[in-house]
Amino acid sequence: MSEDRLSRVFAALADPTRRDIVARLAVGDATVGQLAAPYEVSIQAVSKHLKVLEDAGLVSRSQDAQRRPRHLEAEVFDLMTAWIERYRRQAEERYRRLDAVLAAMDDENQTTINKGAAS
Amino acid sequence: MSEDRLSRVFAALADPTRRDIVARLAVGDATVGQLAAPYEVSIQAVSKHLKVLEDAGLVSRSQDAQRRPRHLEAEVFDLMTAWIERYRRQAEERYRRLDAVLAAMDDENQTTINKGAAS
DNA sequence: CGCTTATTCAACCGATCGGTTGATTAGAGA
DNA sequence: TCTCTAATCAACCGATCGGTTGAATAAGCG
């Protein structure tokens, strides 16, 4: 399924420079040169980072003469949020049930609680 | 800051096997052997995956004889969600403003719209 | 047309990644 | 104690990653 897509999105955001680029693109569209300016690395390196973000679907490019301004595709974030929320909720639900079970055991076996601690 | 932490979390979840492990741990705690069973890869490989998840703070381990059951630490998800939401909102807000500006220009320059297209 | 600007392509390099196999540690249990 | 089970450590391997430099492509400009 979109297993692969999700992997690319997470991998793309695993790099601090790329997260930084996303942050800057959230403010407004920008060209490769503009995006590269604040960094010490070469323009080619930034261009590569942008390719990774594009392959993940996080960024798109348009054309303006020889410039190719990049644009943040914010919808992809939903894919991540959906994945994260799913398992967070599941884990929280489990906690809730576990707490209930432990409370029930506690009610039932008040006197046997020290059994393990005695050794 | 927790730049580094965030990088590790995203990197950890960039691997489908590790996301799968997280999914299983959301259902309930499990030992390395139990987690490794459904996969074709060696136990050592799964052990390595778990180390990555632990280093990212997504998973913790306890002790039960020679077994070391793993537990999902769901709170770390909040770190990601916070990051994602921040830039999604920012991008969405920008859209809103851009739409407003375009609408205003549209009102103002109805007749000049074909200027660019004429050449 | 020839120059400059913006960007990408290509080859290379060291580091990290996901996997392997083999040896080791740690605890239970006969 | 000797043995079995659970898991980790260690060394290695090919692939990918983030970076470099150098050449190529593409579009505006004098």
Can you give a write-up of this model?
2 copies of one chain form a homodimer. The first copy, chain A, is mainly alpha-helical. In chain A, helix 1 runs antiparallel to helix 4. In chain A, strands 1-2 form a two-stranded antiparallel sheet. In chain A, 62% of the residues lie in helices and 5% in strands. Chain A is built from 5 helices and 2 strands. Chain A has 2 domains: 3-72, Winged helix-like DNA-binding domain superfamily/Winged helix DNA-binding domain (Arc Repressor Mutant, subunit A), CATH 1.10.10; 76-109. The longest helix of chain A is centred in the last third of the chain and has 33 residues, at 76-108. Chain A starts with a helix and ends in an 11-residue tail after the last helix. The A-B interface holds A 3-4, 6-8, 10-11, 13-16, 19, 22-23, 25-28, 72, 74, 77, 80-81, 83-85, 87-88, 90-92, 94 and B 3-4, 6-8, 10-11, 13-16, 19, 22-23, 25-28, 72, 74, 77, 80-81, 83-85, 87-88, 90-92, 94. Chain A binds a DNA duplex (30 and 30 nucleotides) through residues 15, 17, 31-33, 41-45, 47-49, 51-52, 65-68.
